[in-house]
Amino acid sequence: MLLVSGQSCPEIYIFGARETTASAGFGSAGAMIDMIIADHPNATSEAITYPACGGQSSCGSVAYGDSAKAGTSAVATAVNDFNTKCPDTHIVLVGYSQGGQIMDNALCGGGDSGAGITDTTVPISASAVKMIKAAILMGDPRYVSGLAYGVGTCTSGGFDARASGFVCPSASKVQLYCDAEDPYCCNGNDAAHHQQYVSIYGDKALTFVNSKLATSTDTSTDAATSSADTSTKVSATGTAGSGSSGSSGTTCSALWGQCGGQQWTGATCCSAGTCKALNQYYSQCLN
Predict the structure, then answer these.
(1) Among 91, 148, 179, 182, which residue is least crowded by beta carbons within 10 Å?
(2) How far is CA 45 from CA 37, 90, 225, in A?
(3) Which residues on neighbouring strands pair with residue 199, listed in sequence order?
(4) CA 266 to CA 123: how far, in whole Å?
């Protein structure tokens, strides 16, 4: 779903990118995204809009390199724009095949000669990178043996492999799955294997994502609780009788509305639901 004006920011937002020739949407990344949402029902998701083509007429005959270049830019734009609207939301990236490549490029930088990208800087802003908690890349042709975040049996590299020894600045957030049988991220000859990463590694990937989100949530919740305590103490010193339910003259927030956070000056109570601290800057009325 695309976040529209006036809609509350979710706790977790997942960007997904499909493989070459897959119809618009999430493609094979969708099954992995479904697993994450099943564990995090408050999470929402958005598919990256890009050609996802390799010269086939079915996707507009866009050359693979041009598609990957456009996709890399699309990922950076989508993530940066979302982070501007929702700076405290935790972000997860899930990319499959070419979809993994464009997320790899956007998060790790380093350029991509196969896609005609000469700029080696990370196109996602520093503030957005900070909120990206996990990235799952499956069958990504940028794989090369020796990556700190590589998972699988491939001991060589894909058709657009990173240079040996490449270091992604966000390596601790990434898992890139690639097996020896795969002809796209490795040098195998079993194209069918390329479509099996969710069934083979889905549980492992989900465990990784959950561990990253849990660590982030624990840290943010502690900070938010501390901030909320401070806010309560400040409110208690204000003029008596200035509002209802300790909200400093403001009626309680409606369901899904903001009810607290650092520098928040509005209502700190909920007319429906419970005020939940999502991070140090944002608390929301949730069921």
Answers:
(1) 148
(2) 9, 12, 27
(3) none
(4) 35
Least confident span in 92-106, 118-132, 214-228: 214-228
Could you tell me if 230 and 283 are in contact, meaning their C-beta atoms sit under 8 angstroms apart?
Answer: no
Question: Where in the sequence numbering do the catalytic residues fall?
Answer: 97, 182, 194
Tokens 């996990």 identify what position?
134
Domains and CATH numbers, the chain: 12-216 (3.40.50.1820), 221-286 (no CATH)
The closest alpha carbon to 32, from 75, 92, 87, belongs to 92
Distance separating alpha carbons of residues 48 and 15, to the nearest angstrom: 7
| Contact call for residues 203 and 178 (beta carbons, < 8 A) | no
- Tokens linked to 32: 């992995």
Supply angle C-alpha 172, 11, 128, rounded to 5: 50
**Whole-prediction pTM:** 0.75
Q: What is the pLDDT of residues 195-245, one digit of tens each?
A: 999 999 999 999 999 999 998 765 554 444 443 443 333 333 333 333 333
Angle (CA) 233-281-278 rounded to 5° is 100
Write down the mean pLDDT value for the chain: 86
Cβ count near 4 (within 10 Å): 7
Distances (CA, A) of 177 to 3, 132, 136: 30, 19, 8
pLDDT over 60 (residue 65): yes
